[in-house]
Specification:
379 residues; alpha/beta; Rossmann fold; 3 domains; seven-stranded parallel beta sheet; 7 strands; globular; binds guanosine-5'-diphosphate
């Protein structure tokens, strides 16, 4: 320590002598030492190299999960430049897609979706498959993060090399979130995943979105108080290709079997699906891994059935069409509502409608006319 440093230190201690707490006997406040900065200024963050469209496609085709993950992040990004790259990647991946089984899995929270996906997934892997678990969670927009498709909920699957798990994209409308999940399916298929699970909570419209992107729709139910049929929306039951009653174990077996009988009876009341497949009802236990092969056998038979009668292809074509229109609707709406002048006009018109100055129809027509004129669209 040179003289200068010594003097500085002494003067620091000298300052401490005037510290008010030093007036108390037996208490001595020493000078502190200067704290180093929180972040090491010498640490250079390695910037992730920017991948080109071809890098992405090549990485995905080789089944590189890191590149696949980055590509999905791009798909989910709201940054317009990312979207441009993402769309190019998707277009280049399209020729390598369509070869998987896409299976939607729904059920209310607590029905046992994650437990079941864990064991269903292991069943797929044991048969030599490669599995992607995706999710659509309509609540994630509000909660800023989805619990569905979360790795921590799928203990067995999350440590398997042939599994890609991705939670629900959290930003945007349900339509937007669903479109991103659908595009992620394309990337996963190009990466060689032959089974895709799309998980959702069986409480709202998200089932319709999932139904429109999967080949098979599985509804997980619980045996409850005997009125379980009232608890589920008729629409969801109508969409289901299979209903499985979970937690058929311990002293719940009788109740589960009773619930299964009730579901079978209820299903007979629905018109036969255009696939010509009569939905089946099976009891199982995800936790104790009972009847898992029965559930899987049902799904195998469904795929054999729809591949043989051509419904598999027909449904996929219908879905392509549906998504084209969905994308158009989504983008038209997004453009319209993000126009600042439209936004301001809507605020005024809203008040006029609320105050009975204008009818809702006239107000809507006015705003649309304004938007059409602004964009030179003939209405
Ligand atoms: P999710 O919210 O639909 O994903 O449901 P979880 O898979 O998290 O399961 C909810 C609770 O039910 C957890 O405490 C599980 O341990 C339990 N559970 C799941 N499957 C079974 C089952 O087959 N039998 C029994 N007894 N409990 C189960």
């Amino acid at each position: 320590m040179n003289d200068n440093e010594m003097n500085n230190m002494n003067s620091e201690f000298a300052n401490c002598d005037h510290h008010p707490e030093n007036d108390y006997a037996g208490l001595q406040v020493n000078a502190g030492i200067e704290q180093p900065p929180m972040v090491n200024p010498y640490l250079k963050r390695k910037k992730r190299p920017q991948l080109s469209v071809n890098d992405y496609v090549e990485g995905i085709r080789k089944g590189n999960p890191a590149v696949l993950g980055q590509a999905v992040t791009l798909v989910e990004s709201l940054v317009p430049e990312h979207q441009i790259v993402a769309q190019e990647v998707i277009t280049k991946c399209l020729p390598y897609t369509g070869n998987s089984r896409r299976i939607g899995i729904t059920g209310v929270p607590g029905a046992g979706k994650s437990t079941s996906i864990d064991v269903f997934g292991m069943h797929v892997l044991n048969q030599g498959g490669k599995l992607a678990v995706l999710a659509i969670d309509p609540s994630s927009e509000r909660s800023k993060g989805s619990i569905l498709g979360d790795k921590t909920r799928m203990e067995k699957l999350s440590i398997q090399p042939n599994v890609f798990i991705r939670p629900s994209p959290s930003a945007g409308s349900l339509g937007g979130v669903a479109r991103k999940t659908r595009e992620t399916i394309v990337l996963c298929e190009a990466a060689g995943y032959d089974t895709i699970f799309v998980e959702t909570v069986g409480v709202g419209q998200s089932e319709t979105a999932v139904h429109s992107m999967v080949d098979y729709f599985l509804l997980i139910q619980l045996a409850g108080t005997g009125d379980e049929l009232q608890g589920i929306k008729r629409g969801i039951m109508e969409m289901a290709d299979g209903i499985v009653i979970n937690k058929c174990d311990g002293d719940n077996v009788d109740r589960a079997n009773l619930a299964a009988a009730q579901f079978r009876n209820a299903l007979h009341l629905f018109p036969l699906s255009p696939s010509g497949w009569l939905p089946e009802v099976i009891t199982y236990s995800g936790y104790y891994e009972l009847n898992i092969d029965k559930v899987w056998d049902m799904i195998d038979r469904y795929f054999a059935h729809v591949r043989a009668n051509g419904f598999f292809e027909e449904k996929r074509r219908e879905q392509e069409k549906y998504w084209m229109f969905e994308t158009i609707n989504e983008q038209l709406k997004a453009r319209f509502y993000s126009d600042h002048e439209v936004e301001r006009m809507l605020e005024i018109k809203e008040q006029m409608v609320l105050n009975n100055v204008q009818s809702s129809f006239v107000a809507a027509t006015d705003v649309l006319e304004f938007y059409y004129n602004k964009n030179k669209i003939n209405s």
